[in-house]
From TrEMBL:
Its EC number is 2.3.2.26. Pathway: Protein modification; protein ubiquitination. The active site is at 133 (glycyl thioester intermediate). This is HECT-type E3 ubiquitin transferase. One of its GO terms (biological process) is regulation of signal transduction. Signal peptide: none annotated. The keyword Secreted does not apply. It comes from Euroglyphus maynei.
Amino acid sequence: MVRWRVERGVSQQSQSLLKGFNEVIEPRLTAVFDARELELVIAGTAEIDVNDWRKNTEYRSGYHDGHPVIQWFWAAIEHRFDNEQRLRLLQFVTGTSSIPYEGFAALRGSNGPRKFCIEKLGKPTSLPRAHTCFNRLDLPPYTSFENLYEKLLLAVEESSTFGIE
């Protein structure tokens, strides 16, 4: 039933959308992009307000804004990630690189309003995991800034090879 609703139930609409898209942009021009890159090209790259993002983030399982791992996380985002990498992180965690017009306070999940969330979960040797329906990042309790930065960057840059829920 789910497969029918997602694939076959909207196939006529999807085909019409694709046909219209291909009338505007030749398929050979978009063939070089994967789905993530194509979304960034189409949606554009808005400048992310890191302060707004941080202000509208929830923490779980022992993390809080003053926790060392969270301090390292925001330091990596603010000082080491460029805007494109921030957008890819947002896409990794939420499934989209678009920021709501109203800012991060208006972020939505699969079932309505849902803030960006960071939960302490995993081993310090694990990569971060994303739950896109819930805008949640499972961030292991890393033991150093460099370890967090390397693991986060690897997860974000290579997310097409890792399982995203």
